[in-house]
Amino acid sequence: MEKWDDNKAWFLVLPVFLVVAFSAIIPLMTVVNYSVQDxxxxxxxxxxxxxxxxxxxxxxxLHEAFLRQLIYSFTVLAIEIPLGIAVALTLPxxxxxxxxxxxxxxxxxxxxxxxxGTIWVVFSRPDIGLAGVTINELLGIPxxxxxxxxxxxxxxxxxxxxxxxxxxxxxxxAGLQAIPEAYYQAAKIDGASRWAVFRFxxxxxxxxVLMIAVLLRFMDSFMIYTEPFVLTxxxxxxxxxxxxxxxxxxxxxxxxxxxAAAFSLIYFLVILLLSYIFYTVITNLGxxxxx
Amino acid sequence: xxxxxxxxxxxxxxETYLADIDLHLESGxxxxxxxxxxxxxxxxxxxxxxxxxxxxGGIAENGKDVTGVSVRKRNVAMVYQQFVNYPSxxxxxxxxxxxxxxxxxxxxxxxxxxxxxxxxxxxxxxxRLPQELSGGQQQRTAIARALVKDASLLLLDxxxxxLDYKLREELRTELRDIFSKRDSIVVxxxxxxxxxxxxxxxxxxxxxxxxLQTGRAEEVYRCPASVTVAEIxxxxxxxxLRTRVDQTMAHLGDGLSVPLDGHLAGLAxxxxxxxxxxxxxxxxxxxxxxxxxxARVELAxxxxxxxxxxxxxxxxxxxxxxxxxHQRRIDEAVSFFVRxxxxxxxxxxxxxxxxxxxxxx
Lengths: 291, 361
Prior knowledge:
heterodimer, A: mainly alpha, 2 domains, B: alpha+beta, 36% strand, elongated
């Protein structure tokens, strides 16, 4: 029992405990606190139990935003991941061209998110934007992202692809560069086709980085806020109102702190759940193939 | 099948990787290429496999020129330093992959994979993925994949370097037996003299892109054509003493001389290098005719159950291999003994003039 006599060591844990408490637990509990109260004025709240949760979960506008968000995230993933892999495969593997390509690719990643939105505003305006004018005048296709929901939706998707595919490319490129030359030689000696090399060497060897890419892109796209806020403001109508914007409107626009807090927690849990599903699926994907 | 390489050069940019390589290999032969890193071993293997083209010269199979024939059309198999297996395929499918690509029937594949896996003792692991195996098992899988397709040319590029000592010993013995039962041409590269001698067969000694000597392993060991070959072929490298020979005596320096008799008889006067392997230097007199030399310990390293004592004698580094584990103080004066009959005699350019008699080598 001697070793339990001196408990001073517990004090060493205190700093970590305080940091975690202030950075994560207390803010989260504040949200939990708000989500179960009806706040009349600062310091005056009534306990309402799960009422806000019930209300938020039954809100048809939220259902729409949620569906829109899911479609958006999956569209973006379905394009960015294969495109990123394809671009990474075509990048040169040595020489000065490598640095040139990587710098060019990394440029969109260095631009602040609200600037990305602004760039696309200027780029796509049907009256003065390079893309807008080209599509309307030269191609003769009527395009107006501020008025047509489909145009607006497509513009946001393309903006995201432009902005984030480089991240997938960089990750995949790193994964590809880590494959020893001997693998390609062995495949050549076996007489494997280009497709077989991709399918049985490159893809499995990229699994780790692809998982990171999918998770990062999923979480980021699921929480997307700044770029559509600048570009479309969620419109026209609600056609580009994603979950974050919906939440912000609720919390700041309408000052419905209770429902907004309840919604935040639901939002958080949904991302956690979906990320977990992705992780499990990708981890098991490789194992399933072997059978 | 016979496989010959004639006058092959390989240059990349201004650098010469291989120069003037001539080799002739017969099927059923076991060939070990021994050379230090950067000797050009891997480059040579790649050219033999058809992965690279030589800058000059040609390669022929059964007298037919195959220099430009792509690796896909050649019947070769290769094992690498790294454990190269398809990551997402089970051991079975890994071994089966060359057969599948060759379009073999399913039942035949299963039988062939089973028998090769049994030879390499991985038949109980067929369902596993490579990442679930130990390093030794991964390399066994890679070797199985190379053996399964019955290639006429089987190339192994330092296959055991990345394994630990015990596994290496074990697999080396097994490989020797496996190779001896095959009638393909086996080419095995290594940097380790002991590995080369243990595998036996034909030995090709390479250095700086050139083949220095070829022959039966024991013969090359007994009669190294030059100082460089002798250095590459013994670990620690052979000791070389600068020696002056006059009409009657050989002068090793420090006033030490030996009479020119035995295999030294009749040496023309001049400057020579006398070589002696470190295990032929002793710290105690073994024979009345041993000569005694003096030097100071510069470093003593313990290697397994032996002690290597590094010294300088007459301006040249020297290593004595002492049985057993001993502590030596740095700068301690030691005297050591050598029998003149054990000397290899090289001329000033390093070419072998005389080797010790067979029973002394």
